[in-house]
Amino acid sequence: MSETSDEYWMRYALQLAHRAREQGEVPVGAVLVQHDQVIGEGWNRPIEQHDPTAHAEMMALRQGGKVLENYRLLDTTLYVTLEPCIMCAGAIVHSRIGRLVFGARDEKTGAAGSLVDILGHPGMNHQVRVEHGVLAEECAATLSDFFRMRRAQKRAQRQALRAAQANQP
Questions:
Q1: What is the pLDDT along the chain (169 residues), one digit of tens a residue?
Q2: Assembly and interactions (predicted)?
Q3: Which of 32, 58, 85, 119 has the most CB atoms around its CB within 10 Å?
Q4: By the 8 A CB rule, do 153 and 161 touch?
Q5: Would you please indicate which residues are annotated as catalytic (active-site) residues?
Q6: Residues marked as binding?
Q7: CATH fold of the domain at 6-167
Q8: In sequence order, what are the residues at sequence separation of 6 or more whose Cβ sits closer than 8 angstroms to the Cβ of residue 67?
Q9: Which SS3 state, helix, strand or coil, does residue 131 take?
Q10: Which residues are annotated as a binding site for Zn(2+)?
C-alpha cells in the first residue's frame, strides 16, 4: 500500500474515533480493509456496551469475520488510530491479519512495541507486519484533546459540588 492510501484509511479511522468521542468514549477508531474495500469498522464502545472487550479493533475484527464468514481475516490490513493493547494484539494475531497500521503510540498499554511487543514476538505462530506513525500527530492530538476536555469536566463537577455544599445550611 502506498503512503497516500495509508493516510486515506487512517483518516477514515479518525472519523470513527470522532464517533467514539461524541459518545463519551475514548476516541479510538479502526477500519479493516481487504483489497481496498472496507470489510469491518469500529470505534471504542466499552462504556456504551458495558463490555470491556468493545475496543475499536475488536469491533472491526468481529464485523470483518462476519463479512468474510471466517475468523481468519487473511490478506487484510487493520488501520487503528492508537497502538493496540494486549487484548487487541492477541486478537490480531489469532485472526491472521496481514498488516497493522497505527497512528499514535501508547506508552502505557501499547502491545506493538511501546509497552510490550506481542505482534513482534518471535514465538508467535503468526507474524503481522506492523507500521506506525501514519498521521500520528493527528491521532495523538485527538486523544490529548479528549482527555484534556474530560479533566476540565471533572474539575467543573468538583467545583460545582463544592459550591453546592458550601451553600447548604
A1: 445 799 999 999 999 999 999 999 999 999 999 999 999 999 999 999 999 999 999 999 999 999 999 999 999 999 999 999 999 999 999 999 999 999 999 999 999 999 999 999 999 989 999 999 999 999 999 999 999 998 988 888 888 888 888 887 7
A2: Homodimer.
A3: 32
A4: no
A5: 57
A6: 55, 85, 88
A7: Cytidine Deaminase; domain 2 (3.40.140)
A8: 39, 40
A9: strand
A10: 55, 85, 88
Domain coordinates of the chain in residue numbers? Answer: 6-167
Q: pTM of the prediction?
A: 0.90
| Spatial separation of the C-alpha atoms in residues 137 and 132, rounded to whole Å | 11
Query: Cell digits for 47?
Result: 462504556
Cell of 140: 495523538
Are the CB atoms for 31 and 38 separated by under 8 Å?
A: yes
User: Scanning the structure block, which residue is given the C-alpha cell 485472526?
Assistant: 95
Residue 9 identity (one-letter amino acid): W
DSSP 36-91: TEEEEEEE--HHHHT-TT--HHHHHHHHHHHHHTSS--TT-EEEEEE---HHHHHH
Q: Give the amino acid at 10.
A: M
